[in-house]
Amino acid sequence: MKKTQIVVLCIVSPLLACASGSQTSHLFQKNPSVTISSQELRVQVRSLARPLAGILEKTADEIIAQSDDPIVRQKVLRTKTEAIPALFEALFRKDPGAALIDASALVEQIRQEFTDGSNMVLNDEEKQIILRAAEDMKHRLQEVYLATGASQEDIDQFWMEVEGWARRHPIEGNFAIRDSTANLLAKSNAATGGGLGAAISSAQDELADLAVRADLYAEHLPRQARWQAQLLIEEMMAEQIVAQA
User: Fold this and answer.
1) Domains identified in the chain, total number
2) Which structural domain, as residue segments, surrounds residue 67?
3) How far is Cα 95 from Cα 30, in angstroms, rounded to an integer?
4) Measured between alpha carbons, how far is 121 from 241 in angstroms, rounded to an integer?
């Protein structure tokens, strides 16, 4: 088995253990002081929604406020408008382990979209704002990985897998139709005979998720409406610039 496959298994195994209610995975045996149940993992993953969305919103607002380029403002505003609902969708996947990995992939896709992409429109200062925000979100996500018993070394190597996946699956068009992260776990699924999709959740868990998600959407719907109106204005301004060029 290749080293990268072993790393993926080291990261995913504790997530699988949490999802199934077991705590006998390889990494839990290596780290007996670490215990996290499926419910605890679920709570930790769902609790990332507000802070990560807040980072995305604050970062976009900072760039929009300081940029005098309507094309930049349009791109950043569109990303904020689409990425936050996509983040909620990722973090509230039924399986909290799969949700954590999907959100990690989304964060990396956003970072690469603005810093590595051929269509990058940001200047160096704006790029640094994105990089700082991405690093902050990555750190918060990795704190949850650490809680499952994974070592920092394994997490760092696994994040390289996430980076590679994001590079092969860039955001194309709307965030709502971004590629599935299922193939990111294909190697671990083959080795374990299952996958993160096998998580078991109770009706009570699902009702709790629904309540939290409803609160988030109620909180963000007015903002989404305002952002959509702002986006329409920015698109009109960008079209005028293109027409005058």
Assistant:
1) 1
2) 3-244
3) 24
4) 15
